[in-house]
């Protein structure tokens, strides 16, 4: 099964880990608007696309349990496998107080290879080949992007919105994000990502930071068109809980309405939520109708790691497998059937 997962950061890491239980043919399409930390520094100093989320996607594909179990260099009683070791090395951050402090090794490798090859896609493909990683990691765009947001609640008059710029500023704002845009507003999509989406058997969007990792994927016109054109099954995962800053106070239903407001032509086949986050009853009924905005069926399942607002990759993989095999149809309810 050819799987494409769209997102960024920790949300995409969890999704990729889950999808690797289902197939070795997994392509990650990653947002490129990060302007904080090591990624922001390398972006400003070298003009490269921010490497942090790309590094995390590479590490996820390299260290996914199913991937390790299938390899001849799997874990031994004497220590981690080569893939586990290198996944950890990719994530290791330099200490100290000098120029390298805070930079993960994987970020520097990606930035250096991009300078040498002149192409971030070639740099990522080279790392995939060198470290024998199943799957592929692609940037959403080959140029660094910026996020701009209209935010209310920052002025004395709550009716007034202020425009703020930058992914970190949007993610940490004490106000309420109303709408986001990408700069440039018609960014070029990565051709390889478009091809992967169009030829996929399964396309997964979310979970993740809603305004900075999920919604940006539908703000690239060519990529939105590819999502509409693909014959693959399109599955949207909604966050288990609102995130402080970006989506404080958001219900699960509100997440869907905000996504629809940014891309009302987006169509998906299945929307998946954690059952505990949306109890059966009136709230679930409203969510079913919100799913209908995308032409989708709603599925509620046990998806969380107990006691944490984090998706359990094995539970997610099991649910997606059941979806693809048609075993969940009896749990799906369309609005007109409720």
From TrEMBL:
The organism's place on the tree of life at top rank: Bacteria
GO molecular function (one): LPPG:FO 2-phospho-L-lactate transferase activity
GO biological process, one term: regulation of cell shape
GO cellular component terms listed in the entry, alphabetical order: cytoplasm
Keywords: Cytoplasm
InterPro entries to which the protein is assigned, alphabetical: CofD, CofD-like_dom_sf, Gluconeogen_factor
Keyword Cytoplasm: yes
Localization annotation: Cytoplasm
Keyword Zinc: no
Main location: cytoplasm
PANTHER family, alphabetized: GLUCONEOGENESIS FACTOR-RELATED, UNCHARACTERIZED PROTEIN YVCK-RELATED
Family note: Belongs to the gluconeogenesis factor family.
Its biological purpose: Required for morphogenesis under gluconeogenic growth conditions.
UniProt-recorded name of the protein: Putative gluconeogenesis factor
Lineage: Bacteria, Bacillati, Actinomycetota, Actinomycetes, Mycobacteriales
Gene that produces this protein: yvcK
């Amino acid at each position: 099964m050819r799987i494409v997962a769209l997102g960024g950061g920790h949300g995409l890491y969890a999704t990729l880990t889950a999808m690797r239980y289902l197939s070795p043919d997994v392509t990650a399409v990653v947002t490129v608007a990060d302007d904080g930390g090591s990624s922001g520094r390398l972006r400003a100093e070298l003009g490269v696309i921010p490497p942090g989320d790309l590094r995390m996607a590479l590490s996820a594909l390299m260290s996914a349990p199913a991937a390790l179990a299938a390899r001849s260099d799997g874990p031994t009683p004497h220590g981690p496998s080569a893939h586990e070791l290198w996944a950890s090395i990719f994530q290791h951050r330099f200490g100290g107080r000098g120029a390298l402090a805070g930079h993960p090794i994987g970020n520097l490798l990606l930035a250096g290879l991009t300078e040498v090859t002149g192409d971030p896609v070639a740099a990522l493909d080279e790392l995939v080949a060198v470290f024998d990683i199943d799957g592929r990691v692609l940037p959403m765009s080959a140029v660094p992007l910026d996020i701009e947001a209209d935010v209310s609640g920052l002025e004395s008059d709550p009716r007034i919105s202020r425009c703020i710029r930058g992914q970190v500023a949007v993610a940490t704002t004490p106000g309420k994000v109303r709408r986001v845009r990408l700069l440039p507003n018609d960014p070029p999509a990565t051709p390889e990502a478009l091809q992967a989406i169009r030829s996929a058997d399964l396309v997964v969007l979310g979970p993740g930071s809603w305004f900075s990792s999920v919604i940006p994927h539908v703000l690239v016109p060519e990529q939105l068109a590819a999502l509409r054109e693909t014959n693959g099954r399109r599955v949207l995962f909604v966050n288990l809980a609102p995130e402080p800053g970006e989506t404080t106070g958001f219900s699960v239903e509100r997440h869907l309405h905000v996504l629809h407001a940014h891309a009302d032509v987006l169509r998906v086949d299945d929307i998946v939520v954690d059952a505990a986050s949306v109890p059966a009853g009136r709230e679930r009924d409203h969510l079913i109708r919100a799913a209908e905005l995308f032409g989708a069926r709603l599925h509620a399942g046990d998806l969380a790691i107990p006691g944490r607002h984090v998706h359990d990759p094995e539970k997610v993989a099991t649910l997606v497998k059941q979806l693809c095999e048609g075993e969940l149809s009896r749990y799906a309810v369309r609005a007109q059937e409720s």
